[in-house]
């Protein structure tokens, strides 16, 4: 017997993120303006735009770190179908990788401690109780990312690329549904970039949803098909990679002439 539409919709999982007419003010200025967006659960996306376009602000809205203005236009801002979240419950669904996070690990702690801290959303272990299951999971994720040798080393002694993979490991230990990567390749050399891409592809294929925030089109791994382009706090374009990553679009997005080329599923910008 075929399902009717109402039955079908009631069995569909809610989108990962859904917002209608949301605006964000920071320091008295509107930095997101009447944004409408739906990101289905399980869809890998890249959020692409110039500096200051509102990408990180959008991630803060998604993580319920900041809230939309409750003006007359506001309609909804839901994560996994819910407006209200206890922040720790919400964080359990996400793993976050950012430069800011990496640079908060300034103390001399080992790679293993860094990864274990992912279970507690903390920047060290402090008095948290580490179980044998947690330790097991750390070794499993370290094997997956090929960073077992980093576990006994101090994070301060690792190169940027090595530390970045450790931070990714930290983001994955609690088995999040979604991995948010905010400018993950900044400060990495070509070899580290190559290695990171390889592991990001492996993670995407493993079933973890990737949300990549970047201003570099070469960061976009082939598994990501949808591009959300932001400019001046607005949605500039939203659609599939093949139609959006063109020289004309990217030139308009960054306000300079840019030539875009595709090679083996990756896109590259030149001529600027
Ligand atoms: N706490 C704040 N107070 C005032 N303005 C802010 C604050 N946080 C962000 N902004 C402003 O909001 C705008 C969007 O910032 P956001 O960090 O979201 O941009 P972005 O696209 O992530 O940029 P980048 O690529 O440089 O990281 C910028 O103009 C920024 O100056």
What about the largest sheet?
6 strands, mixed
In which range does the helix fraction lie? 25-40%
Low-confidence segments: none
In whole angstroms, the N-to-C terminal distance is: 58 Å
Briefly note the CATH topology name of the domain at 49-57 and 97-270: Rossmann fold
Classify the beta-strand content into a percent band: 25-35%
CATH superfamily heading of the domain at 49-57 and 97-270: P-loop containing nucleotide triphosphate hydrolases
Function: Probably part of an ABC transporter complex. Responsible for energy coupling to the transport system.
GO biological process, one term: transmembrane transport
GO molecular function: ATP binding; ATP hydrolysis activity
Domain ABC transporter: 17-257
Q: How would you explain this protein's 3D organization?
A:
InterPro entries: AAA+_ATPase (IPR003593), ABC_transporter-like_ATP-bd (IPR003439), ABC_transporter-like_CS (IPR017871), ABC_transpr_CbiO/EcfA_su (IPR015856), Metal_Ion_Import_ABC (IPR050153), P-loop_NTPase (IPR027417). The model has no long low-confidence stretch (mean pLDDT 91). Helix content is 32%, strand content 25%. It is of the alpha/beta class. The chain has a domain at 49-57 and 97-270: Rossmann fold (3-Layer(aba) Sandwich), CATH 3.40.50. The protein has helices spanning 5-11, 55-62, 87-91, 99-104, 111-116, 132-144, 160-172, 190-205, 241-244, 247-254; strands spanning 17-26, 29-39, 45-48, 76-79, 94-98, 178-182, 209-214, 226-231, 234-240, 259-263, 266-270. The chain is built from ten helices and eleven strands. It is globular and about 50 Å long. β8 and β9 (234-240) form a beta hairpin. The strands form three sheets. The chain has a six-stranded mixed sheet, sandwiched between helices. Strands 2-1-4 form a three-stranded antiparallel sheet, covered by helices on one side. The chain has a two-stranded antiparallel sheet with strand order 10-11. Adenosine-5'-triphosphate binds at residues 26-27, 31, 49, 51-57, 215.
């Amino acid at each position: 017997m075929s399902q009717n539409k109402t039955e079908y919709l009631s069995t569909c999982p809610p989108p990962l993120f859904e917002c209608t007419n949301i605006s964000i003010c920071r320091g008295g200025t509107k930095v997101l303006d009447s944004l409408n967006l739906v990101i289905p659960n399980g869809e890998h996306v890249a959020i692409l735009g110039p500096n200051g376009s509102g990408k990180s602000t959008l991630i803060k809205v998604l993580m319920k770190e900041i809230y939309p203005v409750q003006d007359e236009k506001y309609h909804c801002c839901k994560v996994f179908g819910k407006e209200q979240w206890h922040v720790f419950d919400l964080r359990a669904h996400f793993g976050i990788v950012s430069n800011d996070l990496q640079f908060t690990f300034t103390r001399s702690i080992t790679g293993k401690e860094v990864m274990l801290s992912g279970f507690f959303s903390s920047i060290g272990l402090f008095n948290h109780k580490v179980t044998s299951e947690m330790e097991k999971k750390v070794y499993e994720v370290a094997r997956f990312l090929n960073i077992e040798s980093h576990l006994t080393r101090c994070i301060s002694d690792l190169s940027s690329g090595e530390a970045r993979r450790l931070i990714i490991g930290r983001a994955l230990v609690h088995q999040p549904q979604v991995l948010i990567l905010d400018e993950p390749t900044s400060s990495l050399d070509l070899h580290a970039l190559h290695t990171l891409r390889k592991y990001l592809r492996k993670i995407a294929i493993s079933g973890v949803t990737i949300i990549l925030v970047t201003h570099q089109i070469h960061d976009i791994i082939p598994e990501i098909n949808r591009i959300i382009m932001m400019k001046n706090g607005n949605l500039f374009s939203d659609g599939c990679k093949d139609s959006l990553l063109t020289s004309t679009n990217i030139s308009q997005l960054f306000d300079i002439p840019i030539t875009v080329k595709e090679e083996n599923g990756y896109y590259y910008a030149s001529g600027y």
